[in-house]
Amino acid sequence: MGVVVDNPLSHVRRISIAGPRLSAQEARELAAAAAEINEDRDLRAIVLESRSSPFCVGPTDDLDPLTIDPDPAAALARLRPPVVAAIRGDCLSVGLEVALAADIRICDADARFGLPDLGHGRLPCWGGTQRLSRAVRPAEASAMILLGTAIDASRAHSLGLVHTVVDDPSTTALELAAELASRGPLALEFAKEAVHRGAELPLRDGLRLEGDLNHQLAATDDRAEGLQAFFDKRPPDFAGR
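Now predict its structure.
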């Protein structure tokens, strides 16, 4: 069984890959699953995990990453709601490139992260060279890419590559997804856009983007509901409008 998509919680989808290696068929299934669930306007958070440990140590022999279009990392990065990746064990090569497309990464103490692709005569081609250098310091990213250096969970946490190190990443990821799902879906979507687009802009333009998104959000029913719920001292009931 390849990619499996289920609904473990209200407003939450979970995408699981088989592991420990990613096949060509599974890469295509992962990209297709991401594109399909992105059309669900009721969706507020996504959990990405592997049904095995390690998470993913690289491609199978039948997978040439250059032949997969769109690649699964790009498809995951395009998702409107936030993505939480639960990582157990090694997360290497295409596995790390897929995980880097998530917004929040959680791992266990046995996790290791690396891009050993140059040692196999190939470059990372699913955004690894770009997303890794934005997730950690450029010097650290250069060492991981050029030397194929893998870092452990503690180092990944200290560098900001992972949000936290826990005993059970899958359970923690679902707990975070439930917390995200309690928030307004439009606010989540706009906040994600502000962070990702803003990182590629000069500060002045990033601030303008933040202001524009705030003005858009202010005109929505969700914003009105949030304010009314605050004054009524009750949990908000967001509708995504």
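DSSP finds ten helices and eleven strands in the chain.
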